[in-house]
Amino acid sequence: MPSVTSLEGSSVPVKKSILDLFTDVRSRTVNICSGLQTEDYVVQPVSDVSPPKWHLAHTTWFFETFILKEALDGYREFDTDFGFLFNSYYETVGERVIRSNRGNITRPGVDRIMAYRAHVDENMAKLMDIDSFSDEMRMRTELGLNHEMQHQELLYTDIKYILGHNPLFPPLHESVNVDQVELAKEKGTVKIPEGIYKIGFDGDGFHFDNERNPHRVFLESFEIDKLPVTAGEYLEFMESGGYGDFRFWHADAWDWVNANGVDSPLYFHKVDGKWKRYTLAGLKDVKLDEALVHVSYYEAAAFANWKGRRLPTEFEWEVASDQIRWGFCWEWTNSAYLPYPGFKTADGALGEYNGKFMVNQMVLRGASPATYSNHSRHTYRNFFHPHLQWQFSGFRLANNI
Amino acid sequence: MPSVTSLEGSSVPVKKSILDLFTDVRSRTVNICSGLQTEDYVVQPVSDVSPPKWHLAHTTWFFETFILKEALDGYREFDTDFGFLFNSYYETVGERVIRSNRGNITRPGVDRIMAYRAHVDENMAKLMDIDSFSDEMRMRTELGLNHEMQHQELLYTDIKYILGHNPLFPPLHESVNVDQVELAKEKGTVKIPEGIYKIGFDGDGFHFDNERNPHRVFLESFEIDKLPVTAGEYLEFMESGGYGDFRFWHADAWDWVNANGVDSPLYFHKVDGKWKRYTLAGLKDVKLDEALVHVSYYEAAAFANWKGRRLPTEFEWEVASDQIRWGFCWEWTNSAYLPYPGFKTADGALGEYNGKFMVNQMVLRGASPATYSNHSRHTYRNFFHPHLQWQFSGFRLANNI
Amino acid sequence: MPSVTSLEGSSVPVKKSILDLFTDVRSRTVNICSGLQTEDYVVQPVSDVSPPKWHLAHTTWFFETFILKEALDGYREFDTDFGFLFNSYYETVGERVIRSNRGNITRPGVDRIMAYRAHVDENMAKLMDIDSFSDEMRMRTELGLNHEMQHQELLYTDIKYILGHNPLFPPLHESVNVDQVELAKEKGTVKIPEGIYKIGFDGDGFHFDNERNPHRVFLESFEIDKLPVTAGEYLEFMESGGYGDFRFWHADAWDWVNANGVDSPLYFHKVDGKWKRYTLAGLKDVKLDEALVHVSYYEAAAFANWKGRRLPTEFEWEVASDQIRWGFCWEWTNSAYLPYPGFKTADGALGEYNGKFMVNQMVLRGASPATYSNHSRHTYRNFFHPHLQWQFSGFRLANNI
Amino acid sequence: MPSVTSLEGSSVPVKKSILDLFTDVRSRTVNICSGLQTEDYVVQPVSDVSPPKWHLAHTTWFFETFILKEALDGYREFDTDFGFLFNSYYETVGERVIRSNRGNITRPGVDRIMAYRAHVDENMAKLMDIDSFSDEMRMRTELGLNHEMQHQELLYTDIKYILGHNPLFPPLHESVNVDQVELAKEKGTVKIPEGIYKIGFDGDGFHFDNERNPHRVFLESFEIDKLPVTAGEYLEFMESGGYGDFRFWHADAWDWVNANGVDSPLYFHKVDGKWKRYTLAGLKDVKLDEALVHVSYYEAAAFANWKGRRLPTEFEWEVASDQIRWGFCWEWTNSAYLPYPGFKTADGALGEYNGKFMVNQMVLRGASPATYSNHSRHTYRNFFHPHLQWQFSGFRLANNI
């Protein structure tokens, strides 16, 4: 689990050899699931949440399909049905199981999927060991590992959704603490002067296609908080009637609040007059100083309106990122997820990775305690539809000066 | 598994002592599940299909709630949450888990539910052994066992739905043969003259409230087939374009056919130009002489129209039941499920058993090979909504004379 | 408008010549609409409610399609598009406008439809006047007129739905009184002994196919109220919490109550603590002695359960019909709409008339003040889905003795 | 109707006196409806399309509510129910009729709404004539007129939707030509160098709040077409299988295409193998040189991908607007609708105008032939959800250089 401190201290951890990284990432995925019972791996309560066993298999399928089948001589496919079952959005590769049906597919079971992982891991180790391991395959392996890091975060949030919607509120494990982060006390803001700034990834290491091209933007001067909003600050909004006052909400947001009866962040429950929230360690009191998470963009924007401030754009966030603290939660920005100038998708199935999602979603910046340590950058662009609450999503405020 | 022969030879098997019956029924429930993997116990692909683990727990909850908690001194409830989780439609007893959410509740797991069954079985054995085991509790025990027999049939059909909608078509077990019944060759019809006939249960043994009161009906003369319709006969309907010709269908049925793109019984698949069907033993060729199952009332009625004949009423069926063969499948009748004259519900939660379903459903008569041997009577009234296909439901034809 | 008295005094009014009847029925249809504004003719607020202009055209289309085009030499079709637009459920005749889209079809307008009516009326008069007017065409004309009588009742109820869901509650006309019937004071019940009774139409005059064949049924002895339930009696059920107590409701009914938040008959509104109801003459106080209307079968059955009594079957109702008063409202019975023994549909499109609706619906007997005087018989079988409230539907109670 | 030439020649028409402008705008609204029959004013086929009579009343309600009731001494409200009926999204002002129910409200009828317009127009004329007509009220009047100009465009598109979905394809009027614009022949592109550019409204005249604050953006160099895409160019995309190839579509777009079976722009119909399209003057052949309209953002983006180019951002469009031709159609840009730096909403109900829509929508720039002549500016920001086709929406292409 990445500590918040390490995220702040260094966004570029020591480079591991590719096999070390492979071993570390692959075992962390399984470790995340260590508190699960077999039954927990199967279900898909809503279409955005995938069954844990699907994540385990899908991340493995990536390595088999894009690397082993192409590059390892004599590789024997583990099971020819798996391409169909564990493909996700890769329309190029073949027919896929419709996303909202994933949760009814009880076979193959968890044991068989673990065997699939072992089979692929073993063959990947073999491939990485041979002299002819090409740069292209190394690059794909790195992409596959970063893909798996993303699914690790989804594993946490999907497991939380499954257990957190069980009327018994079972914990994943008492010691999991990715969603109980207290903020440092050092409040305050940072002022950034107007000017032309460089945005996007411009180095050599791994990055996603959506971080490119590096380009210039002009920013008016602004002020941004050093820390994201706390649960305590958000409780004030709730208690002042914020969910019942249309003036703070976007029109689509107001429809969403009313159609779904939303009156708090996800996982909040009022028990005997006191707010509690479900965490992966079980039901806990809401602490005033902890980072607010599990709010939608709609809620973030409504809170900002209520405060008379606003969310930063993703460009403001990136420019200020050296001077603020981050790593407590993913932070909604006021930027829609759109391509940077000169954005280009790769050819073929790997080209489906990011571009096809560049509509109807908002950008989140930062990282959460559930994020793999290697998987955060100042230029990293996360994105979700604006009504979604189930990620470790909070926000910080900004304003013009 | 009941043999078809025994159902024909005798509808009143040798009476077992209540404890023997209890032991037999309870162990059969677990045996039905013996081919399942843990993952299969959890899911609920559509609202009519319940997760197998829910059936295991719900049938157990019946004994705990209505018998042990009332009659066994010092009984310790296994888990106070279970009343909420495993109640079904018993509104009297307390808040229940909404039916369509059952499939997302991964905890308690299968092991814990098996422990629940053991705990209740042990205490029931204790209770049945003591002298003060009352007639009222004996009667409730018998009701609970008949309730469990009904859930055994649902277990078969729900397991079939879960495995039969998996793209891999896994069998429950190669040796299960409840849904592959070949019919005897002796075709022919029975003629029944007009007259007043006695209908309903009029004896001493166990029966459901919906079989009473016994009463008289006047029937015009009619003719009824000795055997239900075969898969081969139904294939002729399909191949003659029956699913595409509105003239054979009820208006609601025609909407159902078109909204769902129905063009065959459930579990039929055309593979390389040949009809196959999923059975609990895997994907098999359709055999011409086997009993047709997994059709809705809508399909049964359309077939009858196509043939220029009709379905029998439940009264005609009951009057003819001594002279026809049955036990191959549940048979849709042309009777809506309505109360008999003088029908009375019991007081309290047990009174919810049958009366509240007496609208919008059609009566099925007979029994299937999946029916517990003790659980079929000439007066037995099964019922389902007319669009449902997932039961072992077929039909036979009749006509006026 | 039929007076309640005339309905009681004589169910067989003086036979009119077919042309007189034609003229009378056709002009009554237009008269019913006399309080409408052009805008009111167009909309379809829910799929069961058709736009008034559609009723005007569809009833006319019947005469053009089944009579004029077949029997009148040289008949010029008014508009070849109308067959497509104003066909209803007659699948045989050709593609039809999907029912739930009818309300968006603003052209042809009301004036053009009135011209269509005039064109068809003129040609029908010509046809009925010639010597070769055949018995078959006379029979079809009579069917067309009875079809139009049914649509007259639907015109009343659909107009009421349209105006009654307008926030301004505009009356159709202050003097319309089809839905404000006070009941006679003579309460009491009728006792009918057990026995074999004759059911169904067995005479020479007009009747629908669903009233045949005449046949015998055996009835146990029963007791039935002389009058239907009043609004005042139903208010007691409401005030005692009837809508909130699941014990009185069928399972499907309870789902309906909760999904739709039903807490009163349709058109009831609590204004300043007092129950009012929308009538075609505007918003009025609920009167205790008036016939209850606009309840669903679900509500009728729940009320009966609350009273510890039951609804009569349609057979009981028919047998008792000479000794009870009726004509106040359509009365839900506890009979599902199913074919009588020997029921046969006509060939071709006219054969679609009734049989295709014989599933999922409950029978109503009687007649309402909106029913055409010629259009009620002791054997008449009306039918609707059990959740529908928008007809002039009430009920009376019965019990075993 | 604005001519395309005038739009190009001058985006700032001669300033009219406020009363002249009021008279001109108000009468144009009624003129747009001159081809309608009463029935056409009533319906709402989908929730985005409002009944024409609602537009007539709602635009009038604006002047009554925000001007007459506040500023005209002794003003008598026309009808106290209208505030409730014709409010749109102004949550501050009171309960409103849910948008998707508007089409079932047949009263008040068209005549009464025309009387409402006359009443308000007369009183507005009185108010504008008096010496105390304040600057605040003059500003609100101008806002009300610009609001009405927007609804004029919606009147065109909503009328088109209503008539264009009638199976008879009735024209509004043979002479209406707002949706049949042939493009000039002068193809070609404009190149814009990188640099800091000024964006947004920075003058004195009328503008919407969303056009402010004026601010600077940095643009990389780019190239943009002088003309939007023609119907002929789009036909090539269609005929090359563009609607069937997922590679060109956003993920949300691909879901939209498949869920709705989209295979052409709205109003396109293949008749006898040839593409026709419904226009407000009736069904016409598709002409290769006419401006493509009625495509969604999804379709615009897919076409651009197919061409290997992209849509311009709204900033690129604005910077290039002096050197390109426009006024043929509204043009989708690749910018999400978001606030400019320093954007501020007004207080109270008028503040609801634009800010609340700043999520989930894409910006369109330009103007269509249906746009009021006074109502187009280089800085004007139109916006709609990306799946909507019913506006006069096309697009032009750009690329990096």
Notes on the structure:
4 copies of one chain form a homotetramer. Chain A is built from 10 helices and 12 strands. With 401 residues, chain A is an alpha+beta fold. The first copy, chain A, has 2 domains: 15-164, Four Helix Bundle (Hemerythrin (Met), subunit A) (Up-down Bundle), CATH 1.20.120; 189-400, paralog of FGE (formylglycine-generating enzyme) (Alpha-Beta Complex). Chain A has a 4-stranded mixed sheet. The longest helix of chain A has 30 residues, at 135-164. Residues 1-15 of chain A have low confidence and may be disordered. Chains in contact: A-B, A-D, B-C, C-D. Chain A binds chain D through residues 89, 91-92, 196, 215-218, 220, 246-247, 249-254, 297-298, 301, 310, 334-336, 338-339, 341-342, 356-360, 362, 386, 400, and chain D through 89, 91-92, 196, 215-218, 220, 246-247, 249-254, 297-298, 301, 310, 334-336, 338-339, 341-342, 356-360, 362, 386, 400.
Question: In what order do the strands lie side by side in the largest sheet of chain A?
Answer: 10-9-8-11
What is the global morphology of chain A? globular
Can you say what the CATH homologous superfamily of the largest domain in chain A is?
paralog of FGE (formylglycine-generating enzyme)
Low-confidence stretches of chain A: 1-15
Q: Please tell me the CATH architecture of the largest domain in chain A by its name.
A: Alpha-Beta Complex
Under CATH, the topology of the largest domain in chain A can be stated as: paralog of FGE (formylglycine-generating enzyme)
Assess the beta-strand content of chain A as a share of residues. Answer: 5-15%
Spatial separation of the terminal alpha carbons of chain A: 38 Å
CATH class of the largest domain in chain A: Alpha Beta
What's the total count of β strands of chain A? 12
> Quaternary status of these chains?
homotetramer
Tally of separate helices of chain A = 10
Overall mean pLDDT of chain A stands at 91
By helix and strand content of chain A, what is the structural category? alpha+beta
**Helix fraction of chain A by DSSP (H/I, runs of at least 4):** 25-40%
In total, the number of domains of chain A comes to: 2
Main beta sheet strand tally, sense and closure of chain A? 4 strands, mixed
- The run of helices and strands of chain A is HHHHHHEEEEHHEEEHHEEEEE
Radius of gyration of chain A: 21 Å
Largest interface: A-D, 36 and 36 residues
